[in-house]
Amino acid sequence: MGVGVEKNNVKCELIISGGTVLTMTPESEPLPDGAVAVTSGEIVEVGGAADLLGKYRPARVLDAGGGIILPGFVNTHTHLAMTLLRGLADDLPLIEWLEKHIWPTERVLMNAEMVMLGTRLAAAESLQAGVTCVCDMYFHAERVIETVVAAGLRAVVPEAMIDFATPSSATPEDALAVQRDLLERYRSHPLVVPAVAPHSPYTVSAAHLAREAELAEEFGAPLIIHLAETRWEAEKIKSEKGVSPVAYLADLGILSERTVAAHCVHVTEEDLGLLAELEVGVATNPVSNLKLSSGVAPVPQMLELGIKVGFGTDGAASNNTLDLLRDAQLASLLYKGLTGDPTRMQARTIVEMLTIGGAKVLGLSDRIGTLEAGKRADVVCFALDHPRSVPVYDPYSHMAYAARSSDARHVVVDGRVVVQDRALIDTDVDSLLDDVREAATRARELLAT
Question: Which listed site, 15, 37, 38, 364, has its alpha carbon 20 to 30 Å from 317?
Answer without folding.
Answer: 364
